[in-house]
Known about the structure:
The chain is an alpha/beta fold. 49% of the residues lie in helices and 15% in strands.
Amino acid sequence: xxxxxxxxxxxGSAALLALGLSTGTVKAADPVTLNLGWATPLESDYGIxxxxxxxxxxxxxxxxxxxxxxCCAQIATEDDAFKALQLGTVDAYFISQNNxxxxxxxxxxxxxxxxxxxxxxxxxxxxxxVGQKIRDQLQKDTGVHLLTFGGPGYRDMFNSRRAVNSxxxxxxxxxxxxxxxxxxSTFEAFGAEPVPLAWSETPTxxxxxxxxxxxxxxxxxxxxxxxxxxxxxxxxxxxxxxxPVFASDRFMNKLDEDQRAAVMRAAKEAGEYHTEVxxxxxxxIRSWLANEGGMEVTRPDRAxxxxxxxxxxxxxxxxxxxxxxxxxxxxxxxxx
Length: 336
């Protein structure tokens, strides 16, 4: 009799489980918190993308992914964030591609000067097979996930000493450069004196005149108020940058299948939104820097800079090996 009761109970439990599955009353996903960090202010360019991602990730996950925005280097600096992602001590972070390269040199294919002919070329590459290859190889080699490239932006030079009307005018200028070999070589090829500095040291170095200037995304020059210390803005579009969002493998493994799909969908759509914003704002910010910011803007002839950049491209393609060169060739072919 007792055995019969056990059997009846087991059958009843199985029936209840089946009923629960059929009516959609399965166990809800465990809630997960995502701390998303970056180095610039909340209202910055990164903040625009982060806010949209927060909105979409929480919507698509039905609130089971709670995104916390951590601006202003609260949880890491950009220089140490990639290693923290690998260790799993940071969930997600915005890291410009030049600051990824010291940890994963293949990212330098996107850092090479004038590697993209125009914005359409850039978007074709980042949204196409080359961009996916970079994502896949990065995850395989480092364990770090690239959620979205974000919107594109160009780096503009600025300095406190003089207007730059030609490549010769860069000679002798001490310009801050991220600790990235491609960028250092590029500024040397342009005739400047590159000073490798961590991002966290840059504002103070500019204010104390340890450096004459540097280059940053157009929006960053405004957000960080560099126009108060450097009155000369030089527009060359020599480097193009993204707003890449990376996530740790440790965080991604906390997600169930639906949550992962929600996060990836949110990242994709937030990146598309951010691209639209960026493409509309670049010239507007340059105009603001010239007018409200009081900067003197020059647009030198690019031909000498492009010639110098091509030598840098050839140098690194030869030094970095066949795999690196193959990706460079794919990027160049995408422009055709």
